[in-house]
Amino acid sequence: MKGKTRMLKFKRHIICSVSALVLGCLATGASAQDTAPTTEAQTTEDGAIIVTASRITTRGFKAPTPTSSIGALEIANNAQPNIFTTVAQLPSLQGSSGATTNTFSTSSGQQGLSSFALRGLGVSRTLTLLDGQRVVPANIGTGAADISLFPQLLIKRVDVVNGGASASWGSDAVGGVINFVTDTRFKGFKANISLGETTYGDDKTGVVQMAYGTSFLDDRLHTAVALEYHREEGVGPGDFGEKAANGRDWYRSSTLVNTGQTNNGSPQFQYKDHAQSYTYSKYGLITAGPLQGTAFDANGNPYQFGYGNNGAGGAAGVPLKDAAGTVSGCFTGFCIGGDTSANVGVGATLQSGIIRTNFYNRTSFDLNDDSEIYFTINLAKVDTHNQPNPGTTQAGLTVQCANPYVPNSIKQACTDNNITSFRFGTVTPWLPNIRVNTERKQERFVVGSNGKFGLFGTDWNYDAYYQHGKETSDIKVHNLLLKARFTAAINATTIGGVIVCADPVARANGCVPVNVIGNQTPSASALAYLQPAVGAYQHTIQTQDVASLSFSGEPFSLWAGPVSMAFGAEYRREAYRAVADPYGNGTSTPYSPDYPADPLLSTGGGNFYAGNYRNGRGSYTVAEAFLEFNVPLLNSEQLGAVNLNTAGRATNYSTSGAVEAWKVGLTWDTPLDGIRVRTVRSQDVRAPNLNDLFGPIVSTNLPNFTNPFTNSTLTVSQNQGSNPGLVPEIAQNFSFGLVLNNPMWFPGFSASVDYYSIEMKDAIAGGPNATQLVQYCFDGSVPSACNAFNLSGANPYVNVGNINAASIETSGVDYEFSYQRSKPFGLPGNLVLRGLATNVRDFTTIPGLPGTVASQTAGQNSGATPDWKVLFVQTWSTEKFSLLIQERWFSDGVIGNQYVVCTSACPASTGNRPTLDNNTMKGMTYIDIGGTYNVRPGVQAYFKIDNLLNADPEPSPQTNTGLDVNPALYDTLGRFYRVGVRFNY
């Protein structure tokens, strides 16, 4: 039954796709771009085909895997300081990481990281290449390259392969491949200078790029150099409350509040704006007991806190003054309206500040007319900074009534009510805000040779190279609180008329008391005690060494034409080492002078208010070989031309053993003018990265742990973090599509429509606790759990990090068309229209653990995969000027597909299917305009305005009051102006 259902769904997809292709042909006047048809491959001077979707590089080859290309002119017209932004606009890219994401983070190191994600599968399942070569990862957590470190001015084309390509390129190419192709023979000089800022006067941006290429020795020795400097101030943060940075007025603390009603016909959750937590206030709030509802102003004076209500109007909430801290007339944990001055969500950076520098050189020497040797060097660095939140939220503190900082009126109230302490909450506005500085430095060297040679009467291409890459990442977090010291410092007493810390052990180790009530600036010595000047840090070095050799040619011919083949082998070693500060990592050895020993702090680490700073190291090696054929099966004027493209790759990982990837594809150039049919079936892999296998771990002892295999108890070490027993993820990719390429009856028009389906097994995802994990292995419910523990030997352990248990299923349809016309409507110049769209039909994640349920995230605008994502571009260019209009659109969606929407007569609300009164998130349309003017030969001025209508982001409410927007999908910066000048000689 399941197979029949899938076949019916597939037939519907194909019918809809064909209909959409016809409609696209009828609507070509509505969308745009400015390059040759992107459904076709790129051709070199000698007629060889360069197709990123394949390793075949011979004449006449057409890859069956859908590939979109962005040319140098498109890149220039989009006028972005980072080419990442241009590519990330393509609809098939969903959930990429950029400068506006990860700004809430302290220790991930992903701030300002420019990494792509295809099909919403995450950046770790998209392979990014530079001239067909791997690039050392820029972050231990993702294992992905940082595109901003590439030589952007020398990039002449970006190929986006929308489909599995592991058979051709290896691990990580589950969602697809993005290949940046540089101009390896560039001659001349070109430069780009641009300035920009938002309509709010922030994120001031400056870019200077230069490239120079020349040749010597009768054009046999060639060298090209590129230099780049890029600076962005960033945006934010806002302040406490609801005031976003520099006049932005869209933030309103949107929250899904819990009514607590699960079976009375009303929705359990309600969508509310202006939510206010009643567990803290800006300058302090007593949250439980007989003094509950007493707040303090900036001077420490008490007053009655302004509680909101349940959002339905009427009287404000009233504290029940009980030990639980409950409030009547509000929701669980939240009121609506009232005093929202302590909300911290908008106080996060909206975009990380960035300083980026880049040096690139490629030098080559022609051994003869057919072969060259070359050397490339890429030295690049990105510095970013962000603020994850203002102050530090402190709920549930205990303050003694005898504390000398407590106002006398409150001390008297304590006496009257026969209490000695009270529960207290604040956002500590008197503490300097956290600042995260992240630096990523790349050193990449490649030496290689490529060309062609004759063998057995045919021409062969070869490519050989060795690459060494080193990525150094430094995370330094300033003004980060030590939790145990904060607890000691706020517990003050008076000895000999002097206010001191009440804990004698803390006093002996430098504790300086602070006033947690009001907004009293602590002394320099108190701040130094709470927030060490050196702060938290993590220093990480990753290395990647790759040796590769491949060949491509046409060894023989069959009845329908020459057979093409490519084959090769590759060896790769990945390694990393991380060193963290002693307070974050923990240590049993003496501390350094910057981190003196303190008995209040745990030697197991984790002492800072936020983040995870740990030591770690690990490495693995990969040996693999691939073989690919293109076999012409039919070449008939009556029936058309049919080609079979098949490839296989055998890979051996030092950590998990052998794994195979393969693909089988067909293309049929039908006898109908310009129409081609293509389909691909492939098995693709994503191997666990260094962080998955060897990332930093936190170990704790579990005494009296039951071993179900022997029915005995023992003490085991529980390792929270990585899992060396992980194996590669396996994905099954399928696509089927139609291509219309420049037919005689519609010259200049090309279009394609492709259905895709990806089914991934053994996906790496969060695992259960130690007891559950061992039991899953024992009862056979999760076989992969058996790789995560060893209960025998002298040091038994259980790794409770990720395991290979989850499954992901996603499917949808890609659409693309372009149209070019000279002298449109009798006007001079050229008109180019281009449109791309992706419709995600399904994105199901199955955790694979007992008791868990599948989740559907297609159309969930709080995530990465809206139902529809569309890009339309129209350009009109003449010899003197060009104009561009671009529309970026994605469809309306939901907050979460798990919710049952109702306002009355609701079914019982459950953990898997909670009820909610409003589950909508509006889609968005962004309009960009730009233009160029040729001032003189070789000099071009340009402008660009992104988000012309200054569209505000839609709230993405959660069950807390964070920054409730989704920066991976919505523009949080607003209208952006950019001007610049280009030189090309």
UniProtKB/TrEMBL annotation:
It is a multi-pass membrane protein. Keywords: Cell outer membrane, Membrane, Receptor, Signal, Transmembrane, Transmembrane beta strand, Transport. One of its GO terms (cellular component) is cell outer membrane. SUPFAM superfamilies: Porins. The keyword Lipid metabolism does not apply. Belongs to the TonB-dependent receptor family. This is TonB dependent receptor family protein. It comes from Asticcacaulis biprosthecium C19.
